[in-house]
Specification:
CATH class of the largest domain: Alpha Beta
Number of strands: 20
Mean pLDDT: 87
Bound molecules: adenosine-5'-triphosphate, magnesium ion
Strand order of the largest sheet: 6-7-8-3-9-10
CATH architecture of the largest domain: 3-Layer(aba) Sandwich
CATH superfamily of the largest domain: P-loop containing nucleotide triphosphate hydrolases
Radius of gyration: 23 Å
Shape: globular
Number of helices: 17
CATH topology of the largest domain: Rossmann fold
Low-confidence stretches: 363-369
Length: 500
């Protein structure tokens, strides 16, 4: 530690004049941030605004080009992740960093193993279960993390950070994959940390949550500080205006589409234990919202319809024809596409450029004449970059270097290009900012207008209520409720159905 005498009332964390550029991008230009002990500071901003970059600098994962940091008044240079950890900074990243083949407890203590495997195993398993208990997470403790659901993996990440002595805890979109109950548990954990005097930086695009958990908000736009204010002194529409630079009156664009003939029919689809006799119809121009708790079988249902998992029973019909689906290839040829929830593992090749990722699944669709294909692709890609407002320095920017929300939009664009008749969206707006959500909803409305049948799986209840013509609620593999009159439904209605 530095010899400068820390004053007792110095803020827990001060970041001053932080500047960071990547080739072609000024990610941060002179950002200041102050965090007090026992405070939850929400960090807001559009996709690509620089939030993750700022916290990666705090975590020692990136070096700032300029600027300084102090912890409890002491200047610090957090030159590596290890240095940040020993300074008491714990980070839960937007993209998980778990080793899929290792169990939850092995992941939690990875790199900090002490003693023989036998001694460790007992002690670490015990400590891991205690932390899971504290945060109310139910995790099969010895299962490889690759087999856990996204929500469970998120809980392992949280446990990993909690297993270290943290003074500053950073959470980059920790709730993006969680259902309302899981978010409640997470908030209980955050409140406990706050009571212990830990300072928390919380990044999220869910403004309802911010209002519940944050003490203060700070907004970044285009890598610059815009404002910070006590949460009690700021309204939702002000936060939106600070983020996007304009007001958004209605977050869910209206549409008037006449619902036509039945297109997709699912008849008693079954794959135990996650999908049990699911029967469902979706018509031309209809958007069906599918909600439920994590583990309710929503994603598994989507995978059956997409041919990604074999069915144990039941039939899928499209436009009056029975489909034989043995692989996703069969589904795509039949006109069904699935936008997966897990962009990192199923959606993108992070080491390829954005435009190459866009082209990947479309190769078969376009001309085999190389140069024609190339130009068409570029044009199509540019079209999506414009309509979805994907923020990139150039089409050649690596997918892995895009901000989280922009990666999600990229996944969306490449599947939309398939021009399918049935589109299944699994958590389409996870991690996408308010403005971007609006673009995606508008696009969904347009697809419905073209006569496509749309299934939207989502845990974000305002989105389900705002966008669906009909809502299906699942619980333990079964449909436990159908809401035809969406206008009369509330979040409580859906939650009651979701718990069975
Ligand atoms: N390693 C990198 N190489 C090149 N550019 C990068 C890199 N990391 C981030 N960027 C760019 O820096 C800018 C800020 O990205 P950052 O990930 O901080 O955004 P964010 O506010 O976290 O957005 P989101 O809400 O989408 O997660 C973006 O333009 C992004 O493309
Ligand atoms: Mg980010």
């Amino acid at each position: 530690m530095n010899s400068a005498t820390p004053t007792a009332d110095a803020p827990l964390l001060e970041m001053q004049g932080i500047q960071k550029s990547f080739p072609g991008v000024h990610a941060l230009s002179g950002v200041d941030l102050v965090l007090q002990k026992g405070e939850v500071l929400a960090l807001l901003g559009e996709n690509g605004a620089g939030k993750s970059t700022l916290i990666k600098i705090l975590a020692g994962a990136h070096r700032a080009d300029r600027g300084m940091m102090r912890i409890s008044g002491d200047p610090v240079t957090l030159a590596s992740p290890a240095a940040a950890i020993s300074a008491g900074v714990g980070v839960i990243y937007q993209e998980f960093n778990l080793v899929p083949g290792l169990s939850s407890w092995e992941n939690i203590f990875l790199g900090r193993e002490e003693g023989s495997l036998f001694v460790r195993r007992t002690a670490e398993r015990k400590r891991a279960s205690e932390i899971f208990e504290q945060i109310g997470a139910r995790i099969p403790i010895d299962a490889p993390c690759g087999q856990l659901s996204i929500a469970q993996q998120q809980m392992v990440e949280i446990a990993k950070a909690l297993s270290q002595e943290v003074r500053i805890m950073v959470m980059d979109e920790p709730s993006a994959a969680l259902t309302p109950q899981e978010v409640d548990k997470l908030f209980a954990v955050i409140n406990r940390l706050r009571d212990r005097g830990i300072g928390i930086i919380y990044i999220s695009h869910r403004l309802d949550e911010i209002a519940r958990i944050a003490d203060r908000v700070m907004v970044l736009r285009d890598g610059k500080y815009v404002a910070d204010r006590l949460i009690s002194d700021v309204t939702r529409s002000t936060m939106i205006e600070w983020m996007v630079g304009r007001t958004i009156d209605d977050e869910f664009p209206k549409r008037s589409v006449s619902i036509g003939d039945t297109r997709l029919q699912l008849k008693k689809l079954r794959r135990e234990p996650s999908v049990r006799d699911v029967t469902l119809e979706i018509a031309r121009g209809e958007i069906i919202g599918v909600t439920g708790l994590v583990g309710a079988g929503r994603t598994e249902l989507a995978r059956l319809v997409f041919g990604a998992d074999p069915m144990e029973g039941g039939e899928v019909w499209l436009d009056g024809r029975r489909l034989k689906l043995h692989s996703p290839g069969d589904a795509i040829r039949a006109g069904i596409c699935l936008l997966t929830e897990d962009r990192k593992h199923q959606g993108l090749v992070l080491g390829l450029s954005a435009s190459a990722n866009f082209a990947l699944p479309n190769l078969a669709m376009l001309s085999t004449l190389g140069w024609v294909r190339h130009r068409q692709e570029r044009d199509r890609f540019r079209h999506y970059v414009d309509t979805l407002k994907i923020r990139l320095s150039s089409p050649d920017q690596l997918a892995g270097h895009l901000s989280g929300g922009n990666q999600q939009k990229l996944v969306l664009s490449k599947w939309l290009e398939q021009n399918s008749e049935v589109i299944i969206f699994d958590e389409p707006t996870r991690g996408v900012d308010v403005g971007g959500k609006y673009e995606i909803y508008t696009l969904m409305n347009e697809l419905a207008r073209q006569g496509k049948a749309i299934m939207m799986i989502s845990s974000e209840l305002p989105e389900v209520l705002g966008m669906s013509d009909r809502i299906i609620v699942m619980h333990e593999g079964r449909i436990t409720g159908t809401v035809d009159n969406v206008g009369d439904a509330t979040q409580e209605t859906l939650m009651d159905l979701a718990v069975g």
